[in-house]
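INPUT
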Amino acid sequence: MLRLPFLPPLSSRERQHWEAQGYLHLHGALNPKEIDKIRQTVNWHWANPEGNPHHVDVITGEHAGRWFPMSEAPPEVKGEVYKLNNLFLRDERIREAALSPRLKAIFRCLLADEPMICNSLNFERGSQQNAHIDSWYMPPPNDEGMIAASISLDPVDEANGPIFFYPGSHKIPPYRFSDGRLNMIEAEEEACRAYLDAEIEARGLKRVTFRGRPGDVFIWHGQLIHGGSAIEDFARTRSSLVVHYWRASDVQAHALRRDQGGRAYLAHTLRGELDPVAA
Ligand SMILES: O=C(O)CCC(=O)C(=O)O
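OUTPUT
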C-alpha cells in the first residue's frame, strides 16, 4: 500500500507568520472552476429575486445607507458598492467554497478546533469600510475563537479598493466597552478608536494593503484591524466572498447545523433576517 507522508496544512513558517502578523495570504487556494461557481451562485440570486429574503446593504449611490431584501432591491444597486448578506445559510454552494477541504484544514489549524461559518458576505466591489475589528459586530462565544477570510474572485490592486490592514494589530489587548464586552457601543466608538490609534502609534504598526489574484485567499485574525481602501477606478469590480468563522465547539448544539458534506454552520444569521426553519 502506498503511504503518503502526512503534510500539515500550514508550514511552521506560515504558523509563525500568523502568530506574529495575524494574517495569511494563500495563493491560488481556489481553482477557476470554484471561482466561477461562486460568481454563478451570486448571479443566480440576483436573477431570482422573487421571494428572495437575503439582505443587501447598499453602500454607494442613490440608495446608500439603506438595505433591501433581494426581492425588493432596485436593479441599479448591483452597479454600486453593496454587501449581500448570509447566502451561506441557504446555499450549499457558498458553504462548499467557504469550507473546501483545503481551507477547512487550514482554519482548523488556526482555530485549534473545527471551524464553523457564522456569517458570509458577497461583494462585487471593495467595501470602502472604515478600519474596524470584526468582534465589534460578531463577537465569538470565546474571545479568541474567530477568524475571517476574503476569497478573491477578481484581481486585487490599488485601484479597485483593496482590503487594508495593520499587521500585528491582533496583539493589541481588545478594547472592552462599558458593559465589559467586545460588541461595539456606538456612543463609545470615539474612545475605542482613540485607544486603537494610540496603540498603533506606540507599536509602530503600519497600514498595508492586500493585493492578489483570483483564487487567492486573505485570512485574518478576528482582532486584526482592517477595512476597505477607497476605490480609485469605479469601473473595476472586486468581487469577493468574505466569510467569518467561529469554533464549532464554542456553540451550543441547537445553534449548530451540519450539511450533507459535514460542513458546520450557524443555524441562524447574526442579524436575524432569515427564517431558520425555512433555511
Ligand atoms: O472586503 C472588504 O473590503 C472588507 C471586508 C471586511 O472588512 C469585513 O467583512 O470585515
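end of record. The chain has one domain: 12-266.
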